[in-house]
Amino acid sequence: MNYPNWLLQRAHLSSSRMALSYEEQEWSFSEMNSTAQKYAGKLAAFGVERDSRVAILSKSHPEFIFIMYACLHIGCEMVMLNERLSKVELAYQLEDSKSRFVLVDDKLVEKIESPHVITFTSIRSAKPVEFEIQEEWEQGRTISIMYTSGTTGNPKGVRQTAENHFSSSISSALNIGISAEDVWLCVMPLFHISGFSILMRSLVYGMGVRLHDKFDAQQCAKELQKGTVTHMSVVGVTLERILNVLDEHKASVSPNFKTMLAGGGPIPVAYIQRAETYGISVLQTYGMTETSSQTTTLQPADAARKIGSSGKPLFLYQVKIEGAQKPGEAGEIHIRGPQVTPGYIGRHSGLLVQEDGWLHTGDIGYLDDEGFLFVVDRRSDLIVSGGENIYPAEIEKVLLNHPAVREAGVCGKPSEQWGEVPAAYVVLNEEIELDVLLAFCREQLASYKLPKSIKTVESLPRNASNKLLRRELKAWN
Amino acid sequence: MNYPNWLLQRAHLSSSRMALSYEEQEWSFSEMNSTAQKYAGKLAAFGVERDSRVAILSKSHPEFIFIMYACLHIGCEMVMLNERLSKVELAYQLEDSKSRFVLVDDKLVEKIESPHVITFTSIRSAKPVEFEIQEEWEQGRTISIMYTSGTTGNPKGVRQTAENHFSSSISSALNIGISAEDVWLCVMPLFHISGFSILMRSLVYGMGVRLHDKFDAQQCAKELQKGTVTHMSVVGVTLERILNVLDEHKASVSPNFKTMLAGGGPIPVAYIQRAETYGISVLQTYGMTETSSQTTTLQPADAARKIGSSGKPLFLYQVKIEGAQKPGEAGEIHIRGPQVTPGYIGRHSGLLVQEDGWLHTGDIGYLDDEGFLFVVDRRSDLIVSGGENIYPAEIEKVLLNHPAVREAGVCGKPSEQWGEVPAAYVVLNEEIELDVLLAFCREQLASYKLPKSIKTVESLPRNASNKLLRRELKAWN
Questions:
Q1: Using one digit for the tens of pLDDT, what is the confidence trace for B375-425?
Q2: Which of A221, A275, A473, B88 gives A280 a disulfide partner, CB atoms 3.0 to 4.6 angstroms apart?
């Protein structure tokens, strides 16, 4: 089946409802649609057309959304670039995705070296030309591509189809409900599935989005107090900062506010309990780029009873544990459902992401006797730092590229502020200043991925087949 | 893709939430699931198995639902028999559908002559055997088959798949919202799509159903007053009767109550306005058995401005008018979306129901310049008089606008001069000279559309869901 174009449909069905609000400005779905069509005409002037692969690099502001929605109207595949990445990392993604166009926020233009760059300013000043609007979207059409790292250290471009995003939106609605009054506060990056999925829900539900250009605990607390928003997405560290502000101000939260979706790793139950004293319901979720946002969610009512659990699968989804014979047995987490990506692009396009429709996550977990999922270990020792995923292998690869480094091992170490930060251990071929090594990393890695410590050691812990045992590294922290 | 079995999923995700309430009894989703599994074991004892075509004839009560849900667990195709049909009509449907089993409420056993009858009593007293529960449902799996009459007069068995029911539920939710507190009052027959779709929504949303065994305006008004329900489905005549009861009792409606879905033909705007004085929001809908319930819906905010309209398509659906070059031009209504049946069974299985994914409804209508659908008439009721098309609904609407008229039905009757002329039948609120009524019509209708006769009757012929049967009116001419 095909979907009617979501934005056209919302402009038709919920034309005067608020689609986006930013600072003091607001756009209805009707205005959003006509603005997106205008931008689509401008993009068409540069030759952007149906099925064009278009990379976008932008900070969070309304024009980023206008341009994304314009791409939806035209029928492009959007490669969502992470503004925190280094030039080297971005260049890799552009090359791997073979993006024909790179639409760049002027503020970030220094990050990209490509003959295909079109700045937002030049888009804005282009004269629109005729374009063929996509009235219908095929279910399997790729809407977005997001890069995620894996065990190999080479980031993989994950295809997210219209059906992936639709079923994710629907499944969330079947879990937490929907109402015409809902407004979702978006402080998550729009290029990340946590932020992007808010836009998809907006189009599917006809729901308003309140956009902040970045996370600011004071500003968030203000929205909650005023009751201008009903939902928001958080990670542990942002939730805690908001709670601190509410505490400081002895503030109360408007009864309009309904739910927080919390992703990016387990949330301490103390945060959830503190949130409850403000009447805030926090739902912990487990998901990944390959599942277009949440796959399981823990209801607040179960939070204290099921500490550390990520909850149960949403209505359309199934979770099983590879090889587990009975509840409590850990194994690889397998996921099935219409939210699961059909696969990767570029050099990983041959990589099997599903078997019999089951996504092999690489994460380790178990289901308890009531069917609650507990994630024991994220794949390949994933480090979750302030909600961002960091893969040790990616950092190790960079370290190993330096001639002075013979072996490298990276693991997470606890951080009060970020939950976890990366720590590196290296075996050297020759003497080198660790600052020099760090500067070498800085050229190739986003700053949040930089090791917060680098220590020289004689050897690294390895198993019999010489595989690095990152979990043992942690004992050295 | 496959759906996880909806009832299993709800028993897992919303186990303690109310699934069904009837008189003083209640069943949670967990209880409903175990009861359905018990009944499935009993059905299996008779040889009912996956893909069995099972006809069911029952009055509205919980056991009917247990048995339907048992059939879902086993994976049967349910032929939903209408208890108001004659023995001859039922025999036709059993023969056409080649039903292997006929499950019959003991109260209705005289209606069926078939060697395949299994009474509810014998099911109840059977000893359950092992059966294989369907953990997953294919999207294209036939869940229900409902017979509908057409222009031919030969009822056709319409297949309704899991995807049809799912998308119908989802589309309704995207229109009116969903919340964990919702309870839908079901007074529509469960064998009809209007009632059956309430059960499907219940399973998809995890929503409670409050079941009445039949429509009783007093009982409905009581539920609205007490606030025990949040939604209900009505047709024009049942809505009016409920309003009359509320008026009589000078009653108020609980703020818990949210929305009425009104189907089965246009609702007089006066009813909608009366409902609004009670805070009841009435949404007129247009749908049919072939679309598994509503395809378009009119919001109350538009009701006065768009009198007679059936609203706009729901989010996943598209409507177009065959041959129309511009807004306002009437033609056959074509419908596209995942709610459209893949086709008929039995002797009509070869009949093409879709072309390029578009359902040709046979109904006549137009879209206005804002995209609102106006159903001018169901094609089979069209009166052709001296070459002019006359749509009974138009005349009925005028008659209903007169305060003395409670119900009105119009059909064609043979005329030597004109081929056909309109004849009207009215149920009155109070005595009135028919000449006065005719004069009232004359003010609002072209003369060729004036009923050539108006007769007062006690009641009008209606089907189980209270929809006016204009074809039966013709027998009165």
A1: 887 666 778 777 666 778 878 988 998 999 999 999 999 887 777 899 999
A2: A275
Q: Tell me: the pLDDT tens digits for A402-448?
A: 989 988 899 999 888 888 899 999 999 899 998 999 999 998 899 89
CA distance A302 to chain B (A): 12
How far CA A284 is from CA of A11, A28, A297, A397, A415, in Å, comes to 32, 31, 6, 32, 20
Phi/psi region, residue B265 (left: phi>0; alpha: psi -120 to 50; beta: rest), is left
| CA nearest neighbour of A362 among A330, A321, A332 | A332
pTM of the model: 0.86
Domain B2-138 has CATH 3.40.50.980: yes
Within chain A, all domains assigned CATH 3.40.50.12780 are found at 174-377
Find chain A residues with C-beta within 8 A of B316's C-beta. Answer: 3-4
CATH of domain B174-377: 3.40.50.12780
Chain B residues with CB-CB distance to A339 below 8 A: none
The one-letter amino acid code at B430 reads: E
**Chain B partners within 8 Å of A2 (Cβ):** 357
Pairing of strands B77-80, B117-119: unpaired
Residue of B nearest to A4 (CA): B316
Residues 6+ apart with CB under 8 A from A243: A271, A274, A275, A278
CA distances from B448 to B383, B387, B409 (A): 11, 11, 17
Stretch(es) of chain A classified as CATH 3.30.300.30: 383-476
**Which superfamily does CATH assign the domain made up of A383-476 to?**
ANL, C-terminal domain (3.30.300.30)
Global ipTM: 0.85
